[in-house]
Amino acid sequence: MPHRIVHMLRARGSGRRPVMLAIAGDSAAGKTTLTRGLVRCLGADRMTAVCVDDYHRFDRRERAGRPFTALHPDCNHVDIMEQHLQLLSLGEPILKPVYDHGTGRLVRPELVRPRDFVIVEGLLPLHTRLARACFDITVYLDPPEPLRHAWKVRRDCANRGYTPGQVRAELARREPESAAYIRPQRRWADIVVRFAPVAGRADPPDTPLSAELLLRPTIDHPELGPVLAEAAPPGGDTAMHLRLHRDTDGRPVDALHVHGYVSPEESGPVKKAIWERLAGRADLDPAALGRYGDSGASDPLAITQLLLLYHLLDADRRQQAA
Ligand SMILES: Nc1ncnc2c1ncn2[C@@H]1O[C@H](COP(=O)(O)OP(=O)(O)OP(=O)(O)O)[C@@H](O)[C@H]1O
Ligand SMILES: O=C(CO)[C@H](O)[C@H](O)COP(=O)(O)O
């Protein structure tokens, strides 16, 4: 059982090993946006970010003639990705392949030495049991499909040389593989994050998207109830709350909602309280959180990133105490 051996090796290893965070999701689900803020906040000298789309087996031209898309496990070196995740999780360097999204070509591999924290984002980081065994924290990004499609059209046309019609045709071609290989990874996430507009509200057009975070009991989350109650405005019209949801398997699960229209008076104390739980880390840069696109700023995104920082530092603290 190789995944059990990975669990054992990671638990037994003496000395510090990297804390591993997976961020899985479909193309243009927001993985890079979430990752970028974490790296900037914690510092690139302490955090390594790896994109597992680099393990594509075929370049864009070769893929065009195949019966599957970039989402299919057969279109990726999943076995090599697994080997590399195991090495990174034990603190060992890898020679990682590199896929250039601008040109669609596979280029010269790069040496990656894991720092204290490693974020692994991409299409299939939670696809196999062995890959999943390498992570301390797992996240799945789950925006509504129409929003993700709009993000993908905009991004692929601006940065990857596609026309809107090409992107829409590719999204349609990918749908069966999204259903078969990408979306099933949601099940393995400790935290499922959905950025979306709030239905039925007529907020000004630049209002950030709201965030809904399913906080599954597979890891220990910070106690947010009292913090939210304290920050709630008088009258009880709250823009941030914890509710009990039914997960896809019917089990109850906490869901944290942070609405895009949240006021700084309400979000400020909650951010401060989570920040204080980060053990007063003066070395973190809070200004890096909540940024998207060229100049967008979002409190729901900042709070999502703060919660992930909490988990990264908490996993690191537990590991050092063990
Ligand atoms: N929370 C958010 N609020 C507003 N826009 C967002 C948010 N998250 C992502 N976006 C926008 O969606 C687009 C796609 O995001 P991003 O590049 O982070 O996705 P990705 O999952 O890394 O994509 P891929 O895996 O295909 O490279 C970007 O234009 C980004 O600005
Ligand atoms: O799903 C994707 C993640 O970004 C890409 O589309 C995939 O990596 C292949 O890239 P492209 O076809 O744009 O060269």
TrEMBL record:
Name of the molecule in the record: phosphoribulokinase
Family statement drawn from the similarity comment of this UniProt entry: Belongs to the phosphoribulokinase family.
One of the Pfam families matching this protein, by short name: PRK
Superkingdom, taxonomy of origin: Bacteria
Catalytic activity: D-ribulose 5-phosphate + ATP = D-ribulose 1,5-bisphosphate + ADP + H(+)
Alphabetical UniProt keywords: ATP-binding, Calvin cycle, Kinase, Nucleotide-binding, Photosynthesis, Transferase
Presence of the UniProt keyword Iron-sulfur in the record: no
Molecular function terms from GO: ATP binding; phosphoribulokinase activity
